[in-house]
Specification:
Number of helices: 4
Radius of gyration: 15 Å
Structural class: mainly alpha
Largest sheet: none
Distance between the termini: 21 Å
Amino acid sequence: MTNNEFKGELEQRTKRFSVDLVNWLATLPNNRVVGSIIHQLAKSGPSLGANYREANRAESRPDFTHKIGIVEKEANETAYWFEVLLESNLLAQEQKSTGIPLHAEAGELLKLFSSISRSSRSH
């Protein structure tokens, strides 16, 4: 797989994650506490893909490194809000169960972007 193919596949993967995330969030209860966490997840989760696309169009290596660092931070924030929501008593078990694969994907994306970020800083 070429670097451009990898980038394209990762852009598609982050977009799929964003779509799946917002669709799942739309099924959750609408109360003040859950709503505030949904708001955080709805901001940080989809920003992974948006910021990754921006990083791929960086004007320089330092610009890429900076932008991929933002992606890593957003991925970490997304993982955090998932942990809070899934470990709380705010959701029914079925809602938690349907969110677990998304949480796992958020963790995998965090690992991936952390690796990319480390690699870009070492060059």
